[in-house]
Design a protein that fits this description.
Layout (H helix, E strand, L loop, with lengths): L5 H16 L6 H11 L3 E7 L5 E7 L2 E3 L5 E3 H11 L6 E5 L5 E5 L13 H9 L11 E4 L13 H20 L1
Antiparallel strand pairs: 1-2, 1-7, 3-4, 5-6, 6-7
Helix pairs in contact: 1-2, 4-5
């Protein structure tokens, strides 16, 4: 019996990690699908504030099993809720181009005094495939979601697309 190959070592780590995260009788295929996703140590997303500031955030990718026995990214969603709707934590998502999603406060549409207009986010989200409409409050943009419900980090290409849309939004609003 020799030293295990690097491939064998990675497979062992994945199996142990899957068993720790999913200790019950969850089907092996469900565990296998989450293995690569759970090894990503951090998740990066971007935030557009009502003042038009664009910030890149990175948080630990801590995944736990929720009450429905499915993986849940507790640190990512706590951070997004804190950014987007710190008072209520009620956040919903809309699909964007390039496999991204925007996370917005549920009450932003109905409580304009609590959620100031976000014209830069409006222009960015329109550029990224949403129909033109009023967007308010802080908006988070996250990566795509896997079939297991795990949200990926924004890729370098996605961050570049967002940054270019943000610059374009500022140039249009500054001129208009």
């Amino acid at each position: 019996m020799g030293t295990p190959s690097p491939t064998d070592a990675v497979a062992s780590v994945r199996t142990v990690a899957a068993d720790v995260l999913f200790p019950d009788a969850m089907a092996a295929h469900a565990r296998a699908g989450v293995e690569d996703e759970m090894l990503e140590p951090a998740v990066t997303y971007m935030v557009i504030s009502p003042t038009g500031t664009l910030v890149t955030r990175t948080v630990a990718n801590r995944i736990r099993v929720d009450e429905w026995n499915t993986p849940y990214q507790a640190t990512l969603w706590a951070a997004v809720h804190q950014d987007v709707d710190p008072g209520r934590g009620e956040v919903n998502g809309v699909a964007l181009a390039h496999g991204m999603r925007a996370k917005v406060a549920d009450a932003a549409e109905y409580e304009p005094r609590s959620y100031p207009p976000n014209p830069i986010a409006r222009a960015v989200l329109t550029t990224l495939g949403q129909p033109p409409r009023r967007w308010a409050g802080t908006i988070a943009i996250v990566g795509g979601e896997s079939e297991h419900g795990i949200t990926a980090s924004l890729t370098a290409e996605q961050r570049d697309v967002i940054s270019r849309a943000h610059r374009l939004a500022w140039s249009v609003i500054a001129v208009g």
